[in-house]
Each structure stands twice: as C-alpha cells, then as structure tokens.
Amino acid sequence: MLGCQQITTLCDVLYDQIVYGQYSLIPFAPKDEIESFIEYGFARTRREDHVIDEPLVIMAAWDWLDQNGHFKILNILQRGIGKHAPRKNGLEAYLAFYMRKVFERTPRLDDVFIFRKDFALRKSTDLSWLKDPFELVIVSTAAGTNERKISVVTPSCGPSSNVGFLAKTDDDVLSWISENRESYAFCFPTETVGPDIFFFVRSKITQGLLLVAVQAKHYEDVNKQVLVQGVRTVTPSWFWKSKATTVHVTQKSSHRLIQPNFRTQSQSVDEVQPLSGHASSAPRFYRALAEVEPLITVRNTPHPILRIFASWPANANIDRTLESQNYTKKGKAKSQAKVDEDSVGIDTDNNPLAMLHLENFNNIGKILGESWYMNDTEQRVVVFAKHFYLLGHLGELPAE
Q1: For residue 256, what are the CA distances in angstroms to 46, 229, 250?
Q2: How do the pLDDT tens digits run along the chain, 400 residues long?
Q3: C-alpha torsion 391→394→399→400, nearest 10
Q4: In sequence order, what are the beta bridge partners of 164?
Q5: Three state DSSP letters for the chain
Q6: What distance in Å separates the CA atoms of residue 71 and residue 62, rounded to the nearest whole number?
Q7: Domain ranges of the chain
C-alpha cells in the first residue's frame, strides 16, 4: 500500500512525464522509495535509470489520483504557477496546457493573442491570416523516413502522450524542429535559445504553418526593460545571443538603476556575437525551419515566427516597443534621459509580435477548471494508454 509521501511522489513523476516528457523516478524519490515502486509494479529499471513508463500503470494511476482533488492536474498546475526553477516554470507549464486546450476550438489568433497595433492594422492586407481559425498541430518525421507528417491535436487524441518536451541541449531543440520523432506538441528549449516555449499552429483556411515562440513572465508589473528583454528572447535574430541587462549602483544614490545592455538605434543586431559555443545553432535552426512547409507568409520575413510575450497577471502593453516620439503632446521636447529610456525599447523586427489576451486567458482558465480538468482528468493527455486499448493490446475500451 502506497503511503502519502509515495502518492505525492507518484503524482509528481506522472506530471513531469506529461508536461516535460521525462519518466525518471530518481529526481523525486530516495532509493528505498524507488524500491517500493518497483515492488508494487509501478516502476521498472531501464539501463541505469528507474522509470514509470508502462501505459496501463500510468492510466490506472491517473484514474486513481483523479479521485482526490488534491492531485488533479489543474490543481497541480495552479499550485505551481508561481514556482520558478532554472528549467521548469509553473506559468510555462500552465500555458502549454492552456494552448493545447484553447486551440481545440480552432480560434482566431486575435482571440488568443492581442497583436501590437502596427501588426493588428495589417489584418486586411498581408496579415489577413490573423482572422483565420487556427489549430494546434505537431510537425514530425516518422522513424526511418524523411516524410514530414502534420498531426492535428484534438480533444480526444494526438500522436504523443506528452504535452511537452524539455530540451537539454541545442541538438534537442534542433531535432524537435527538424524531426520530432517522439511527436511532442510543445518544446521547452534550453535557456541559451531565448524563448520559453515553441509550438506550431496551422491555418484552417490556407493550411499554412506558423511557429510560435513564447516568453512567459509571472509578473505583477512589466517595466520597459523587462518588456524589451523579453521581446528579444522571442525574436529570431536574437536566438542564441545575449539579451542580458546589467545592474549598476550609482555613487550619488542608494537606488539601483537598471542599465540595459541593448543596442542603440544605429547598432545592428548582427553585431551582437552568438553565445560562446553556440555559433552554429541559429543557422541550423533557420535551415530546419525552412524545410517545414507550407509556412504562413509574412512580408519581408522568409521564415515567419509569431512572437508572444505572455505576462500574467500584468498587462505587458507591447505597443511600448514601437518607436516613440521625442516630443510630448504639447510639443515640448522630452528630457534626454527620457528619450534614451524610450529609444532602447524600439523593436523593428518584421515577425508579428503579440501578447496574451488576458481577459480571454482568465475566463477560459475558469472554464477549464469546471469542465476539462475536473471531469476529464487526462484530457486524454495519457493518450497512448488509450491507443493501447484501441490497438487491442489491453482489451476493450472502458466505458466513458
């Protein structure tokens, strides 16, 4: 019989598996507890690791855990939304589940995101696809072939049991873009890349594919420097390059001033050197993305990426990244300090930029709690267990 601590461990392992594609017990349990899981049939030894990866065991465990509200997936996500570890962030995990669910209804992109005004005004011209219904898709290549496969993620199925994949190296990220043989819907890339989340969506009108790059910020307020740095993390020309800021303490004041390490208007982004050891990663990334077809068309952008700055609960007000005027409404010149503060935030990249539609995000989040997670624990997330049933390996499907 599993004890309370073992139940919590089991829940943590299954959650880690679904969200990040990891199966190991080692980070969560001491040696004696791992032995208990093996004894009870929950875990097995695989090479030098101890894992929980048997479909029937996982499905049975989720069905059992779902009887206790403390262990429901939504409750776990909500409890962890404010937690931030070097590679695992609660808001990022919640956003992945949210995007998986919200795109089931094939919404218009401008119902999910609020686009910066210069991009929003182009909906009637080259960005008319902002009004198209979109669906979440998985772009993958079957093992042993070079044939590209596009799979739609629906409410009841998908090609993978896992929502996301936690990349450990640059090659992992590049493999997700170019092959994704395990069919993960979301990639949590390494910190050196820039974005927190990658995923693909597809227009139901044109069938054009679009890579989405998300930066997640659990902030009560987003100042100008945080916004500019965050936008750079999802801007392709800054991938695998430093977006850091340096904190300086002035001699005349005890206040700490943020001095952004941002380029000036006359400085090219190409002058910023790639991070040490990552010089070849960005070119390989662009080549891999170029092979994904057909991509959405964006003027002056060969391989479009939708850039998302997703802050919560703060409103990011991404229009602040447009070039600001150096004069006030009354025609008076701003101080040079104010001009410099505004000018560092200029974003001239041609890839569309948007922020999370906070009103819809909050409202849909409440609906999820009532209808999806509470009544359908896996959201068919552990779909491979269902697939095993459908393939006849485990017998008939249980009654819904």
Answers
A1: 51, 18, 7
A2: 566 777 778 777 877 777 777 777 887 778 878 888 888 777 788 877 887 777 677 777 777 776 666 666 666 776 777 777 777 888 998 899 889 889 988 999 999 999 999 999 988 778 999 999 999 999 998 777 778 899 998 876 655 556 788 999 999 999 999 999 888 999 999 999 999 999 999 999 999 999 999 999 999 999 988 999 999 999 999 999 876 643 332 333 333 333 333 343 334 555 677 887 788 999 999 999 999 988 898 888 888 999 999 999 999 999 999 865 443 444 444 454 444 444 455 788 999 999 999 999 988 877 776 654 444 434 444 443 334 333 333 333 334 3
A3: -60
A4: 186
A5: CCCHHHHHHHHHHHHHHHHHCCCECCCCCCHHHHHHHHHCCCCEEECCEEECCCHHHHHHHHHHHCCCHHHCHHHHHHHHCCCECCCCEHHHHHHHHHHHHHHHHCCEHHHHEEECHHHHCCCCCCCHHHHCEEEEEEEEECCCCCCEEEEECCCCCCCCCCCEEECCCHHHHHHHHHCCCCCCCEEECCCCCCCCEEEEEEECCCCCEEEEEEEEECCCCCCHHHHHHHHHHCCHHHCCECCCEEEEECCCCCCEEEEECCCCCCCCHHHCCECCCCCCHHHHHHHHHHCCCCECCECCECCCEEEEEEECCCCCCHHHHCCCCCECCCCCECCHHHHHHHHCCCCCCCCCEEEECHHHHHHHHHHHHHHHCCCCCCCCCCHHHHHHHHCCCCCCCCCC
A6: 9
A7: 4-72+377-390, 90-363
Q: Which residue has the tokens 């009870």?
A: 40
Tell me the one-letter amino acid at 86.
Answer: P
Dihedral (CA of 8, 10, 16, 19) sign: negative
